[in-house]
Design brief:
The protein is an alpha/beta fold. It is built from 11 helices and 8 strands. The protein binds uridine-5'-diphosphate and magnesium ion (MG).
Amino acid sequence: MPALISLIVPCYNEEKALPSFWAETKAVTDRMDAYFEFIFVDDGSRDGTLRILRELAASDSRVKYISFSRNFGKESAMYAGFEHARGDYAAVMDADLQDPPSLLPELLRAVTQEGYDSAATRRVTRKGEPPIRSFFARMFYRIINRMSDVDIVDGARDFRLMNRKFLDALLSMKERSRFSKGLFGWVGFKTKWIEFENVERVAGETKWSFWKLFKYSIEGIVAFTTVPLVAASFIGFLFCLISLGSTIFIFVRKLLFGDPVSGWASTACIITFLGGIQLFFLGVFGQYLARTYLEVKNRPLYLVGESNLEEAEKCAQ
Ligand code: UDP
Ligand code: MG
């Protein structure tokens, strides 16, 4: 019997892209030898996304939708999809056709026939992206891979297909600040990478501002490495050594030459420099503490405003 695949699609203000997404994805999946359920997660859209999803669900019984009470972010949307996936395999796909549906058969082959637990995609070009954004993205991947034991692949998309084992491993990680690119790597297992050229989104615009991406990258660093904390201790220790050395130096110079120590400017520079470093690392500690606080509060990752899951369950019985 063909396998059941849960296709998870996070959507935030995607009314313009959804019709072409559905047409193209359906054309590909209809030709595949597998059953599908489509789980659209409306991440608190303010446009007609939910209306389109209701229409899709009415026209095709395989379509399920979950609509959040507000915008919780793509990570929460993906998690909601994972939680409700009933398939033997689950796949995540963006709604803007930047993840080509034509790759789905190849992804499925990797997990069903080639013995992989997941098949992931990676774009090899960043064509069509502002150069400054590509530059910072590259820097981010270089830094995080130096600092973290988990391999976080440059250009990796969230577009991937995984088996139950992989999916259950992801679900077993209950953390609130989710950085999927790291979680996918952290769980391990065997992953096949499939490369493709960057495709521009079919309609609408990207939801990622520079500031949002910056915050997301901090999220990734805090979630996957404690190297900044080690760096704080190391730099603190280094400055202790420097200050011990210079104290001895000044003391000996005074004894030998009787030089009075002159110059307030250098003293002021040293004080502001050290003050800066201390505040900087206080900020770093703060980041870790804030994440701990968020985890301890144990709030749900998302709240559902509306969904057709119950009706879909009933229809299936
Ligand atoms: N998305 C979401 N919630 C958000 C932001 C984005 O569910 O808060 C969805 C969006 O609808 C799309 C996918 O995540 O399907 C990727 O977003 P986008 O295309 O804006 O990101 P980019 O491709 O530019 O990285
Ligand atoms: Mg996109």
